[in-house]
């Protein structure tokens, strides 16, 4: 399947990467960490399908919703600490980077593009995942949703990453796997490469088409997700106006 593309402006961009499901195959870890956390507070039977609606949403926002839905008395900060502890135990031993994403990051780094990670995960989770996958030395600038006012789909993490890189929003390309992340890039005034998180042929919202309306604002869409993503195609799209 040929990725859908639309014209882009002539800029030399910085590239801002989402982490979970984009750079690192960590969604299964987040699901398991969330399941274990809910189980600790008496909520059993939490399924992948229930988890998938939170893909792309920050950890705090996710736990705030789950706490309300299941009537959990514990404060959100306590739930966050428990989930982070479970996640860190999993990610430090078994996190892996998607091979073509690793190749893309390495190519961009070699070519001198400013790079950053902008994620809804905690700072500790970002650090652990990058260390475990060996990507840390290539992605020194990191922004967590903990460090800004609002998580995705608000643009705050991307705008802060651009600020730290000294790049204007129009000079940035975001790489994202989720609809909230693509929307955040759009609200930030940044171009976007979308690599939807696909399981069993569907994105989390059940879409099976060309990326779906949720990804329409992205300039380059690999509708088949990571199995379709091609580092060379993505690099050529980013670098074509350099």
UniProtKB/TrEMBL annotation:
GO MF terms here are: hydrolase activity
Lineage top rank: taxon: Bacteria
Kindly state which keywords UniProt assigns to this record, in alphabetical order.
Hydrolase
Cross-referenced Pfam families, in alphabetical order?
HAD_2
Q: Which NCBIfam families match?
A: HAD-SF-IA-v3 (TIGR01509)
- What is this protein called in UniProt? HAD family hydrolase
Can you name the source organism? Streptomyces milbemycinicus
């Amino acid at each position: 399947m040929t990725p859908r593309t639309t014209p882009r402006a002539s800029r030399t961009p910085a590239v801002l990467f989402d982490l979970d499901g984009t750079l690192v195959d960590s969604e299964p870890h987040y699901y398991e960490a969330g399941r274990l956390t809910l189980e600790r507070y008496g909520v059993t039977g939490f399924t992948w399908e229930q988890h998938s609606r939170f893909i792309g949403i920050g950890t705090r926002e996710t736990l705030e919703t789950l706490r309300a839905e299941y009537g959990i008395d514990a404060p959100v900060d306590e739930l966050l600490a428990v989930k982070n502890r479970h996640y860190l135990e999993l990610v430090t031993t078994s996190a892996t980077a998607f091979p073509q994403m690793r190749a893309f990051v390495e190519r961009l780094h070699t070519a001198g593009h400013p790079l950053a990670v902008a994620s809804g995960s905690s700072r500790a989770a970002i650090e652990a995942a990058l260390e475990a996958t060996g990507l840390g030395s290539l992605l020194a600038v990191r922004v967590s949703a903990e460090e800004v006012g609002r998580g995705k789909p608000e643009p705050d993490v991307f705008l802060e990453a651009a600020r730290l890189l000294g790049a204007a929003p129009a000079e940035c390309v975001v790489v994202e796997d989720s609809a909230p992340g693509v929307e955040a890039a759009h609200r930030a005034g940044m171009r976007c490469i979308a690599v939807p998180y696909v399981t069993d042929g569907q994105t989390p919202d059940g879409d099976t088409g060309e990326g779906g309306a949720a990804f329409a604002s992205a300039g380059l869409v690999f509708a088949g997700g990571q199995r379709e993503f091609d580092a060379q195609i993505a690099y050529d799209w980013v670098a074509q106006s350099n």
